[in-house]
Amino acid sequence: MVEDKRLGDDRRKKDHRPPKDRRDPEPLVSVLPAYDDEVVPIRSEAGRFGIFLKELNRQKYSFLFIAPGLILFTIFVLIPVVTSLFWSFTRYNVFQPPIWVGLDNYRHILFHDPRFWKAIKNTVLYVGGTVPAGIVIALMLSIAIDQQIRFKGFFKTMFFMPAVTAIVAISVIWKWLYAGEKYGLINYLLIKMGFQPVDWLLSPAWTLPAIMIMSVWAGLGYNIILFTAGLSAIPKRFYEAAEIDGANAWDKFWNVTLPLLMPTMLFVVVMSVIASFQVFDQVYIMTGGTEEGIGGILDSALTIVAYLYDMGFQKFRMGYASALAYLIFAIIFGATLVNFKMMRSKIEY
Question: Are 201 and 287 in contact (CB under 8 A)?
């Protein structure tokens, strides 16, 4: 018992060592197993920041390679976005310093600007006409090209050629095709067939439909390439199983092709809607040279981006145009969310 007491005293002496002999424990919060036979400590915030600095120092030369792109992005994208956001709350005409007006620009656009709502109406009609028509025609042509036919690569190339042609060049050619009386090719053919010529770009009833027809034709190639890629990714065994079950061509399209093509369809719909809301080049080229200005007679083809251009770069109301830009962003963002919400649940992987 005496020996046990001595051993207990020795242990207590060792436990009560002076502070200078003690070692500070690792700043650990907990431990988690990284692998089956290894335990990696999770360090405190200070430890994580130190690891981040070490990794940053180790990758310092990598930042030299991304620096040019990052600088260009900052100068030509980030700074203009932030600046235009500030301008949207001001009255600014380029020649005088901006004057803070708060939400007056947004209030005037939404409640006191009939041209804005005219542009919204035309843009919605344009989106509602070009997106479904372009997708349906591109899907039909893609299914036809995907069959066992000769010269498949030739047809893909021919359909894709408008997609690699500048939209300005396409607009100039179609403007000549739409020329009035007997001078345009389309009216020349109509006259030869016994019909009356149509003032395609000088009639309020035909200006927007004429631009929509041209846009559908110009965008077919891009959608066809996407759809043909999606069709080639569908395994053939699904079609063989459907044929064994007695499915006809329509049943195979509705129950096999369309469900498995939904991821591609979602991408095509979202990109087509975004591009259609941002339509400008066609409107500017085909209506900008007339006395009525951009948008054509009675603003019959005035779209929202064309209206932004008119207010910002022809009337120099930069603050007003900046507010329009952010309203366009909100509209496109909302439309994209709706598309994702409606189509995401129908996607089958």
Answer: yes
